Amino acid sequence: MKIVHIITRMIVGGAQENTLYNCTDLINDHGDDVTLITGPSLGPEGELLNANANPKLNMAVAPSLRRNIHPWHDWQAYRQIKQLLRELQPDIVHTHSAKAGLLGRWAAHRLKIKGIVHTVHGAPFHPYQNPLPRCLFRYCEKFAARRCHKLISVCDAMTNQLVAAKVAPLEKFATIYSGMDISDFIDADSHRASVRHELGFSEDDIVVGKIARLFDLKGHEYLVTAASEIVKANPAVHFLLVGDGILRKQIETQIERARLSEHFHFTGLVPPSQIPRYLGAMDILAHTSLREGLARALPQALLAGRPVVSFDIDGAKEVCISDETGYLIEPRDIAALETAILKLAESKSLREELGNRGQRMCEIMYPHQNMTNQIRTLYEHLLA
Length: 384
What we know:
This protein has helices at residues 14-30, 71-88, 98-110, 131-145, 156-164, 182-186, 192-199, 220-233, 248-257, 275-281, 297-303, 334-345, 348-365, 368-383, and strands at 2-7, 33-38, 58-61, 92-96, 115-120, 150-153, 173-175, 206-211, 237-242, 264-268, 284-287, 308-311, 326-329. The chain is α/β, with parallel strands linked by helices and 384 residues long. It folds into 2 domains: 2-179 and 367-383, Rossmann fold (3-Layer(aba) Sandwich), CATH 3.40.50.2000; 182-365, Glycogen Phosphorylase B (Rossmann fold, 3-Layer(aba) Sandwich), CATH 3.40.50. It is globular.
């Protein structure tokens, strides 16, 4: 089968990791001819492909494909993608991310590609946008949805949101959970002693981690606000922020003003291969984003046997189940965030119980081979 994946940027991020696993599995396990079309990986998030590209994966760059809206560049990117698809003549075109999803589906539709698929890693429109861009992005998604044959959601919550927004009817969607190399996360404890020593944590410290880019809507400010009361109640609690981004200085300033600098630790930009190491050093994972399809950090933490505390946003409730795998709380509820973290910090047996339960659940849901096999079957049905 000849397959083309299209994504706006191959930065360090969840959608990009997912796409790379999918491409690699299609080549290694199914013998498919796979090409990945992407724009330049610009930005502070880092380049995912440098050390992770499969030598059998064909790469093509659309130079004008950028994340920011720019009518002339976007028109050029559409023409570049269309020309690449005309040359490649794929059986399947599978798009990811908002910009590549719109332009790629439009180009594939115009070329009458037999199988056109788009994965919704997270809705491009959301309540925190101004009304005008929110309406524009929703219209673009509806336009693009009419120009593909199947939509894949990484969680049921994404399907429900897009159906409610009348992007496409329910029957056009399929939920396929993201994939990852689960063995690396299950083995996270093997890194615990060395990483805690490296970061300056004692074995008695309770480490609450957050894995996210330091960007808008990722919610670091809520964790910092909650930390004041948490540390006051339990001085052994420390916070480990894994990731980097444009808001780092702002977050550091908030921490300094709260006089919490000794309790917060930044790793900076971390390649995906190193995430299991840092999870090994943690005792609890906090997820305080205000929007996200289903953050990979949640199943990754659970695979490592760590309980999770998450705001109830998008697909979080599908893995963060209160009193079973962690605690699900209302977004921006600082008091509830403090209570949940302190409850876990005070009981090692509770952390182990919830973490082990989450690990057993995610071992079934998240192997990347399962994801790719389901997607490959979907392709076959479209081409039948």
